[in-house]
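G., before I forget:
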Amino acid sequence: SQQGEEDPQALSIQEGENATMNCSYKTSINNLQWYRQNSGRGLVHLILIRSNEREKHSGRLRVTLDTSKKSSSLLITASRAADTASYFCATGSQGGSEKLVFGKGTKLTVNP
Amino acid sequence: GAGVSQTPSNKVTEKGKYVELRCDPISGHTALYWYRQSLGQGPEFLIYFQGTGAADDSGLPNDRFFAVRPEGSVSTLKIQRTERGDSAVYLCASSSPGLGANVLTFGAGSRLTVL
């Protein structure tokens, strides 16, 4: 089963613009992570935000987390053609299993 | 090794055959995960190991799927009596508790095609 639901499913922007992707989830979490996947390759971890954090930055990435709304957003500023990829949110639930549950992803295309 | 290694990278088999997919995690990573990804979808959790034991196998779709990690390092995902619906990319990932959270490092995946 997939807990996270990203939206939009697909996003096309011009180089230099900002890209915002959203993720909603259903159960209580202890952390939320964002991963990136280039076509035909494995996933790469981008950033992790814990349930007691509200915002986190890493380079051109900004992640927010609203546990009351069970949602997160990933902002990529000043996008580049090389940012073209699929982006997935993944949640780690409180207690019990350490598994990560992934959403269906947002396919981002950055046009030069 | 330097990264997570998965073999084979591509496997084509016929319906009903048995398949083994291998994962060699990053040295020292105690947790190992298997996911399966269909086209246009996110990774679907199958099973994860902490050391040699399966800590959570709730994602295995049925008893045709089985995974082992006998020495706490390399893992093998085994699929019996393959069906066309098993066609997907099977992803392996590993993590280290030293990172403080289940941050996963993924392999490139094994693409399975069942004809």
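Chain A has a mean pLDDT of 91. Chain A touches chain B through 26 residues (CB under 8 Å).

More on Monday.
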